[in-house]
Design a protein that fits this description.
Blueprint (H helix, E strand, L loop, with lengths): L1 E6 L3 H15 L3 E5 L10 H6 L3 E5 L7 E5 L4 E5 L11 E6 L2 E7 L9 H23 L3 E6 L12 H4 L7 H11 L4 E2 L13 E2 L11 E2 L2 E5 L1 H4 L2 E6 L15 E5 L1
Parallel strand pairs: 1-2, 7-8
Antiparallel strand pairs: 1-14, 2-4, 3-4, 5-6, 6-7, 8-12, 9-12, 10-11, 13-14
Helix pairs in contact: 3-5
The structure holds one DNA strand of 18 nucleotides.
Length: about 250
DNA sequence: ATGGCTACGATCCGTAGA
């Protein structure tokens, strides 16, 4: 089973990139983030035409998440129980026997800002939500844009980023609280090239300079992690005209 | 030098992303 996660930064704009990439990468399940469109505008038929069922939790202009699968999606749930949120950031479904959660974690804007406080509250809720999901679903994957670079090696210039949003100690602690539940960052289960990131700033020739962060992750529960045979980031779509600022991440399970 | 780009929904600039 090949599982992917991709922050497409507007599904409307990126649909051609997505369908091309699906044909090339052949993932079985895909978690999408930042759809930036409402459910009524979700391109369900276009995705079905290329072989994917879908479940979406969309929102106009901002946020929005979805799960695509080549097989049926069962027991779809949206949001996090007990956490009231105007932002559509979480959708879950069972596909190919695996409980899959697509997450678009808050950006946080700046350390100490209101949005940063929201990010930390949101992560606390995510931890509680995933702890409960783990009890229900031994085979659990959590995939998406976490907006946290877990370690300095996930940052192109750790000195320049020190203490900034995405790498601050409280955000990293919030991320460690997830791995502390037993969720493994599949990318780090394998030898990886240095400085392989999943996001690059549109500005300042970020991609050309490889000035990036690894903030998109696929986490796997203990049982699922045992089945993980590889995990990669595909930078190719970032080279296209009018790309998303994020690259898709992939994990392969036996 | 603390910006630079992109998407969106509203205008011809503000909000948001990261």
């Amino acid at each position: 089973m090949r599982l992917a996660a991709w922050n497409v930064n507007s599904l409307k704009v990126r649909l051609p990139h997505l369908t091309d990439w699906l044909a090339k990468a052949q993932p079985d399940v895909v978690c999408l983030q930042e759809l930036k469109l409402e459910d009524a505008k979700f391109p369900r038929a276009e995705l079905e035409a290329v072989g994917y069922q879908s479940a979406c939790y969309g929102q106009k202009t901002y946020n929005g998440v979805a799960i695509l699968a080549r097989t049926a999606l069962q027991d779809v749930s949206t949001g996090m129980p007990g956490f009231t949120d105007d932002h559509k950031r979480v959708i879950a479904a069972t596909a190919a026997g695996v409980r899959v959660v697509s997450v678009y974690c808050p950006n946080g804007q700046a350390v100490g800002s209101e949005k940063y406080e929201y990010k930390l509250r949101w992560f606390a809720a995510l931890k509680d939500y995933l702890a409960a999901e783990l009890k229900l679903h031994p085979e659990l994957a959590v995939a998406g844009d976490f907006n946290v670079a877990p370690e300095d090696r996930d940052v192109h210039d750790p000195k320049a980023w020190e203490g900034q949003v995405h790498v601050s100690e409280l955000e990293r602690a919030a991320h460690r609280a997830l791995t502390g539940l037993g969720l493994t960052d599949t990318f780090r289960m394998f030898d990886q090239p240095e400085k392989l990131f999943s996001w690059w700033d549109y500005r300042m020739l970020g991609f050309r300079r490889n000035a990036g962060l690894r903030i998109d992750h696929i986490l796997a529960s203990p049982t699922l992690a045992k089945r993980c045979k590889g995990s990669t980031i595909d930078r190719e779509p970032r080279k296209l005209e009018r790309p998303s600022d994020h690259a898709p991440v992939l994990a392969e399970f036996s």
